[in-house]
Amino acid sequence: MVRAYRPDSLTHALDIMSKNRTTVLAGGTDLMVKRRRWGTMAPLFELPVIFVSHLGELRGIEEDGGVLKIGASCTYSQLLASSLVPDHWKTVFSQIASPAIRNRGTIGGNICNASPAGDTLPLLFALDASVLIRRADGTRECPLADFMCGPGETVMRHDELLCEIHVPVRRFDVFYYRKVGARRANSCAKVSFTGFADVSCGKISDVRISFGAVAPTIVRSKETETILTGKDGKEISEMVSGAEEQFSAILKPIDDLRCSREYRFQVSLNLLRHFLENTLFADSE
Amino acid sequence: MKIDFILNKKPVHIDTDPLRRLLDVLREDFYLTGVKEGCGEGECGACTVLIGGEAVCSCIVPVGTVANEKILTIEGFRSTARYRILEKCFIDAGAVQCGFCTPGFIMAAEALLSENPRPDETEIRQGIAGNLCRCTGYSMIVDAIQRASVQGKGLW
Amino acid sequence: MRESWNSAPEFELQERYEQPPFVQWDQQRFKGDAYPVYSWGTNVVEVEVDSLTWEVTVKGIWAAYDIGTPMDERIVRGQIEGGIAQGLGYATMEVMNSSEGRFMQESLFDYVIPTAVDLPNIHSTLIENEYEYGPFGAKCAGELPFVGAAPALASAVQHALGVPITRIPLTPDYLREVTQGED
User: Do B89 and B128 share a domain, yes or no?
Assistant: First the structure.
């Protein structure tokens, strides 16, 4: 049985995938841990693996009409080194794992792994990212919010490959990100909060809020964002408990080895409250 | 799968299961036992080697993905002036207790200083965040790397 | 032994350890004062607790030890710093539970120990106090540095939050419970 394919090009990769069921491996930082066996036995893969990290077509970063097009095999280190990637995004990427993991782990891998605690996901959801998926006989694009259906589940077919992530590039006036882990580095998220806002003439002109690790997928509420838009500082301070209520209904944290659902729930609301009360209009005070 | 790469500056050609861990290929096929398996899951950094000058955890790198890459292990690094400064500074600062994590820290330090020749304390701690040490509490390791960046002026 | 030496291929000699006269310990009846001397340590830990997430940051740790004369000061300091690091980890993040006889934290992914980012610089001092009956004036130092760091940290968090802390590791989840009166 073929253990692994190392395609020469993206076209070659898609051709292989159209003819064989494979497991896609980019950086391997998730898969090599999930599939490990004891001692020096190679990890267990039931299907042949197809390596995609080396494909140049999947490692580009380019800006096109206000949208950053990121190759799925771009590593976090590549993103951190790129002058095209906004600083706010780098704040998120720099808190992923460790330097060695960031040198191999890829943004495409993080998305396809579709973990509720995936570190890139709340950021990408908040920014209305979409993904470009290819297979041998076609291409499709899909909002990231529709791409992920549950823990570890995406809408991809077995012969499809995630090729690009498209993210509208915008400077926001306000950015607040907190990743709460078991320690200050090299830790997965127990809870995370991502907030962006634009303030113009003392009023919110755009606000994005997303939560990670507190539901089967990323939590975002466009309805709540719409309600907060157009409001000034005083109005926002009166709407905080309403916003907490709205999010309380859709946060679905669980108890696990790391912490309790109550902790996740309360910290989520604490961070939301802090974002709304203390960071939105901080500059104008 | 036939896999060619550069190992410690020499070209090598192997034919092996491409999903074997790079860690095992280095230790068992090339007898380079400077890399250690501390955890086997990319958490501890004891298996750190450099690929293209970047630190990676060899316990989670399938060997099939290193084709055409340049890999440096501590054995290959030992002949350099940079290594000699790091070794001296680690000894002087008392940064070695049991020594199991040390090869990983040396490689991580080399990767860090290559990118940032004069890091401050915070940058050093961030740069070695992926290397766990249970014996030293890190203060002396941070001190060692700081000393190396000063004493090794011009090397990085 | 020198006095009894002969050229037989095997030689057995038995000696019974004799306590120095100042050690008043009865080994037969297990009564008295077993230890001729103690090593001593003090620890001061400064912490910051995040009011939104209950995360604890160790801002500083200062320790002083009387371990007699260290035989190799650099190694001893390394042991001190390592012991303190273990104590701080024990106090904050090293959760280990068992269920039905099995550990629930089975890997370094789940059993969390401090990284270099989690610890501050560790400041330690050795008090000069040569112990005349110890080898080269030394007492012992190995386990001691581990002992004080965790309770010092717990005391600091107690001081910060104004609630009794009776458990380590004092995870953010536990601190949430005690500050809200759930514990």
Answer: yes
Reported ipTM: 0.97
Q: For chain C, how big is the Rg over CA atoms in Å?
A: 23
Do both A73 and A188 map to the same domain?
no
DSSP state of C76: H
Contact A29 B17 (CB under 8 A): no
Distance from CA of A31 to the nearest CA of B (A): 8
Contacts of C84 in chain B (CB under 8 A): 137
Range of the domain at B122: 77-151
Write the pLDDT tens digit of every residue in A64-114: 999 999 999 999 999 999 999 999 999 999 999 999 999 999 999 999 999
B88 touching chain C per CB within 8 A: no
Q: Which residues of A4-20 are buried (b: 16+ CB within 10 A; e: fewer)?
A: bbbbeebeebbebbeee
Q: Rounded to an integer, what distance in angstroms lies between the CA atom of residue A231 and that of residue A243?
A: 13
Q: Domain C42-179 classified CATH 3.30.365.10? A: yes
Measured in Å, how far apart are chain A's first and last C-alpha atoms? 66
Strand partners, A210: A194, A220
| Cβ distance of B130 and A49 shorter than 8 Å | no
Structure-block tokens of residue C64: 């002083």
Which amino acid is present at A193?
F
Instruction: Give the strand pairing for B54-57 and B70-72.
Output: unpaired
Residue B54 CA to residue B107 CA, distance in Å, equals 9
Please count the structural domains in chain B. 2
Query: Is there a single domain that holds both residue B127 and residue B66?
Result: no
Give residue A280's domain range: 174-284
Is residue C86 within 8 angstroms of chain B, CB to CB?
Answer: yes
CA pair distance C90, C84, nearest whole angstrom: 10
Find chain C residues with C-beta within 8 A of B101's C-beta. none
pLDDT in tens, B3-13: 999 999 999 99
Structure tokens at B45: 């950094």
CB-based burial label for B49 (10 Å; 0-12, 13-18, 19+): buried
Closest-CA residue of C relative to B142 is: C116
Same-domain check for residues B63 and B46: yes
The reply to whether B33 and B44 lie within a common domain is: yes
